[in-house]
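yo

u said u wanted the structure for the complex thing, so here. seqs first:
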Amino acid sequence: MMQNKTLFLITLAGVVIAPMVFPTVTATDMLIFGLVAVSTNIMVGYTGMLSFGQASFFGIAAYASGLVLKADISVFLAIPAGVIMGSLAAAMVGYFCVKRTGLYFICLTFAFNQAFFFLVYVWTDVTGGDDGLPGIPRPDFATDTLSFYIFIAVLFFICMAAMLAIVKSPLGLIFRMIRENPERAEAVGYNVRFYKWVSFMIASAFTSFAGTLFPMLYGIVPVDQIHWLKSGDFIFMLLFGGSGNFFGPLIGAVAYIWMSDTFSVFWPRWPILMGAIFMFVVLFMRGGVVEMIERTYRYFRQKRGDAKPAETTT
Amino acid sequence: MSIILTCMGLAKTYGEEQVVRGVDLDVRAGHIHSVIGPNGAGKSTFFNLISGQVTKTAGTVFFKGEEITDYTPHMLPHIGMSRCFQRTNVFPELTIYENVWGAMFACANDGPMDFLRRPIFSGELKDKAEEVVESVGLSHKLHDKGKTLSHGQSRMLEVAVTLAAQPELVLLDEPTQGLAPEATHEMTELIKRLAGQYTILLIEHKMHIVMEISDVISVLNLGQKIAEGKPADIQNNQMVQDAYLGRLRDDND
Amino acid sequence: MTFLIASQILNGLATGTLYSLMAVGLTLILGALNIPNFAHGVLFAFGAYFTYAITEMTGSFYLAILIAPLLVSAMGFVLESQGIQRLYSAHHDYQLLFLFATALILQEVIIIIWGPVGFSVQPPASLQGAVDLGITVYPKYRLAVLAFGIVIIMALYFFLNKTNLGAILRAGIENREMVMVLGVDINKVFLATFCLGTYLAGLAGGLATPIMGLTPSLGLDILPLCFVVVVVAGLGSIPGAILAGILIGLSQGIATIWWPEATNVAVYVMMGLTIILRPQGLFGTR
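structre next:
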């Protein structure tokens, strides 16, 4: 398979081309949710913990950052504020969830997600409740869509580099050991519960980071950004792209945002299409797009491999 | 020689069933100490009690003079005790090198900065990891995934992962289980080589191996220790023969 | 005030019974197949819409409540045999994601068939109006739901504990190896369990129509509540699911008295307390 450096360069090229192919706002959306998908994959794909509650942290961070921005305080305070709030929530939720494995873990993350949703929903004075939190300004230096895109792109690459470093570090190896065989990882000397919590925290912190950027894009935090269905969307993105590869989820995020932007305009029932694709991926394409590319690549290489000995015999 | 591991009155009860009933055991440093007994004698549970995989109903365990009764499994490799599992239990999607390096790093980890910064493919741990892989004869598969190994090779990897913690005491749970005669022989030779470096507590079914390599043998039957001694003594012990050896011969036929 | 409290407690009990039915279905599936059924909520909604549609067609609510859950159960049959069974060899997570994808699709199907706007449904004529209970005057229909729910739960208990088929289903949850030893095809046990679980979801949906009304988001709203009930109960306990369902219903009812907006928050406070005080759930062992 291709080296991470190559893939990083391809991503870079993609980020440069994206605003020419898609509307700039859509491209920005893709970067934000690309971060979400890649960070969620650290927990789901690398550590093997399927969480159905990542929208909690995305949403909490979005609200926190939105409130700071609305108060007209610097964006460089809004981002840390959101990340801290999201991570604190994740620390608490993670503490309770990693005590449990498998089913119970999924049920708990899911239930916590909805708890946060209702908190936001009921706390109308602060969050705007059902109407969402409108009127959020962009930073002064990035008010037009293109400069805002560049701002987000820079942050995107910083986060991607940081996450790639984590995945390639011994910590990333520990995560994979836990995914492969938690009992054995425990027996060789790793405190599995602690490292699961670390994984939960890292994934949620980066998801929170992405969450802090979201309010600036459309100037509003709609309440559905913290709904559990959103958590399902995150899973769709990383699964569709391919959870076995660090960059795979990016493909999923791009596809998801493109679909929702394109279809939702003329077909409000478009989630049916997403459900159908989701089902297809689960049934026939579990490695996602990445696996499909790999299979095709191998198929052609094999064909070429077969052709060569044939040449020598003739 | 000094005693490295002491178990006193170890017991495990599942509901009504007493699986292990108050076993005392001393393991001397440098010995190969085997635990034998018929199926259902409680050997594996006894192992799991020592290594903390199963919670103890009663009893205490001391390792190098320190009480480790309530230690959770992940603490043991850090103080020098490491175990392998009966089931082949490696990390299938990781390479052999990553399997061993990862296990080795568990005890070399110096905290957050270290687990983010330590290079995986260079430095002192790399040499040690390659050495361990070499010692079990898997060097040619160094960068292949765990799942590509044959059964015999994965048992070897299992031992390698156990040794990676660089322990003083190694608990081996039926390392030759399911191995072909050739591979069994290799494993036996490996254990003999390890004997010089480590203290080994071994569960083993194949009697000729136990008799060949053990310094001390303890016999469990129905959760109790019924005999202990040198191989020759155990072979001649009437009680052991009645309880076990006769039956085992039947099992093997 | 006593009037209000009494009727809210009864309300809590009535919706609690519905939660119990849902949670028992979820627990059965969870126990046997080892997956949380993410389509449970949407199947509940289908139970409700089917009941409405059949009532409209035939004019009989009672006939509808008989047929609608069977239709939902048939959907469950298709889902299990055509989808989940194909995924037995894959990781459990994929079965769960399959159900999630199903839920997304069915959710939209509801809107396509019945439209995006919700509407309320009248209880059958014979159960309209209210009864004077002395301390409070209470709608007949809700009392009927309460009574019927209790009958169903008792019938279910009898089925699981006193019949052969029930014993096999229970064994599928508690002791899979035993089922294999008995020579029963475990796949059929899973299929039967899934059908029974979805039947209960459909039944709860049907009973809920005159209480909750019909909105497309019915399933989306009730699914998290079911998960909370299961978390509070502890995984795999059927009596736990029944009691926790009623407990959650009651806490919603009681919260309504003092702070109507916070009924759902009360539910999650209950969950939080359970997790802190008894992490394995009220009746859980694992």
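Chain C touches chain A through 43 residues (CB under 8 Å). The beta strands of chain C are 130-132, 137-139.
cya
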